[in-house]
Amino acid sequence: MLTQAITTGAFTDFAADVRSGLSLPDQKELPSKYLYDAIGSSLFETISLLPEYGVTRADERLLRRHAHEIVRRLSLPVNVAELGSGSGKKTRWILEALGRRQATSYYPIEISSAALAMCERELGDIDSISIVGFEREYLDGLLEVAARREPGESILVLFLGSTIGNFDRPSDTHFLAKVRRILDEGDALLLGTDLLKPLPQLIAAYDDPLGVTAAFNLNLLARINREVGADFDLRRFEHQARFNSETGSIEMHLRARATHDVNIPGADFVASFTEGETIWTESSHKYLVEEVALLANHAGFKCEAQWIDSEWPFAESLLIAN
Ligand SMILES: C[S@@+](CC[C@H](N)C(=O)[O-])C[C@H]1O[C@@H](n2cnc3c(N)ncnc32)[C@H](O)[C@@H]1O
């Protein structure tokens, strides 16, 4: 009996988060980190190729053009930790520039085992780079990297793309302050931030006509079906991208097309939806360029250098822990 009682109550973290997020009385929510299972990570890679989604190409252009300057500004020898590396494709520019100057340990930190495997395959051929991946949450992984630091070595943390924008304000500052506390003075953080741009461009980036971003969003419900045994009918939901002008963020939602219930036995729960109600699945804040240095200062960094892409407003900022 005791074993049975413990088993019944022992939800996975995912099931527990699904239950609490879908029980919220006003706006239902699911944490965006659950978008990235094997299918989600693969769909994100496809999103990064879409003509409407300029973030990855802007980030890549800046890293390609400025990798040598970025590396020249670091205190060597340096170890590299990347928070949420994804496939790591763009990181090649930094690692190749570093590999010419020193043997480098590179630590991608990923919640998605599929993304981590892609990253290890993608970057495994670079001379003088050894890769040790951590399938962990950001800060847990970074603590492990810091514990491996030898005397005299510094750390470069990469937080690329627009992932910092997934935090709301002021959680972005609190998160970077936690990163800072794991680091030592003089360590570096290379931070990507997507900048505010005209609304039609922003909406198209998160609601492409091919429907890849819609599939990425809906896959979260399919994942709950696969992993928590739910019976979501995906055709009863539609993807929505909206701009929240109060927060300056794009929000992704899943809107119920009809009033209905969904059984989620793995979370011992039935979720009720009314027609038109939404599940909020992701935010992506669009920064003003002057916000980035302020964010850095509040979190315990100084902005050492910044590069802005002219084709797709996007900033790459080199922050130094002070
Ligand atoms: C928006 S994608 C960006 C990927 C890559 N950095 C880029 O710029 O293309 C965010 C990545 O962070 C990972 N991720 C999300 N939440 C995470 C968490 N809490 N801890 C570790 N990785 C996380 C996801 O699996 C995903 O690969």
Please explain how this structure is put together.
The protein is α/β, with parallel strands linked by helices. It has helices at residues 2-9, 13-22, 38-47, 55-72, 92-99, 113-123, 138-147, 171-182, 199-206, 212-228, 289-299; strands spanning 28-29, 78-83, 104-110, 129-131, 134-135, 154-159, 188-194, 237-244, 249-256, 260-264, 269-273, 278-285, 301-308, 314-321. The strands form three sheets. Strands 2, 3, 4, 5, 6, 7, 13 and 14 form an eight-stranded mixed beta sheet that branches. Strands 1-12-9-8 form a four-stranded mixed beta sheet. The protein has a two-stranded antiparallel ribbon with strand order 10-11. Strand 8 (237-244) and strand 9 (249-256) form a beta hairpin. Helix 3 (38-47) packs antiparallel against helix 10, helix 4 runs parallel beside helix 5 (92-99) and helix 8 packs across helix 11. The structure holds S-adenosylmethionine.
